[in-house]
Design goal:
The chain is mostly helical and 219 residues long. 70% of the residues lie in helices and 3% in strands.
Length: 219
């Protein structure tokens, strides 16, 4: 096997693991052992190690010296802080869009969201949700604002995996974003911000309670 082939296989393993993480297939704090990944996916252990290390570098996993990698855990304080930063970023983006920014990319993101079926993996819904919010931030036309959103995007996506029990069907999550889109199109900042705040508040409350139910995550 050449170096390029090994890198390609490691990338594929990494992508597979990321999708599983976002689908909620692994609980917070679950061990992700190189040997188990290699056996499950039928790849060499060094290849599995490269994939796991890439997910650690991207913030999906964490590993203490001499121990196996684990799915990241979040404390109640982590959840509150992430959503505090989300509000700072997204509220400013909403104001910018309501002032007349181009909403076409946002409409396109919702169109893609509409294609996600209720019987598809939750990971697909997570990606569609993130695509919408990233499009809103991008519409503000501020590289720094988009950069800030990118720095917390991995944490948001991992939290989205924990949000799965909140929605009986993907279409429920989709419909919330239709309401958000319509508020942007209407162009009334106060109304849009009120809806945005309710959307984020609901998610933060659910996630905060979920973390509290897990004693190992609560601190």
């Amino acid at each position: 096997m050449t170096i390029n082939e090994a890198v390609t296989v490691a990338d594929a393993v990494r992508s597979h693991l990321e999708r599983s993480l976002l689908a909620g297939d692994y609980a917070a704090g679950a061990q992700i052992k190189d040997s188990h990944v290699a056996e499950k996916l039928g790849v060499a252990r060094p290849t599995a190690r490269v994939a796991v290390q890439a997910l650690i570098a991207d913030g999906f996993l964490e590993r203490e010296t001499g121990r196996s990698a684990k799915v990241r855990r979040f404390s109640v304080q982590d959840v509150a802080d992430i959503f505090r930063v989300r509000r700072l970023i997204e509220f400013e983006a909403v104001r910018s869009v309501c002032r007349g920014a181009n909403t076409e990319p946002i409409r396109e993101s919702v169109a893609r969201f509409s294609e996600v079926r209720d019987d598809q993996d939750w990971e697909t819904a997570v990606q569609a949700d993130m695509g919408f919010h990233a499009a809103v931030v991008a519409a503000a036309d501020s590289p720094r604002l988009s950069g800030l959103f990118q720095t917390i995007s991995t944490e948001i996506r991992l939290l989205m995996a924990l949000l799965r029990p909140r929605y009986l069907q993907v279409s429920m999550l989709h419909d919330e974003h239709i309401v958000l889109l319509n508020s942007l199109i209407a162009g009334v900042p106060d109304q849009a911000l009120q809806l945005w705040a309710a959307h984020l508040d609901d998610a933060e409350t659910f996630l905060g309670n979920s973390v509290l139910e897990d004693p190992e995550q609560a601190h």
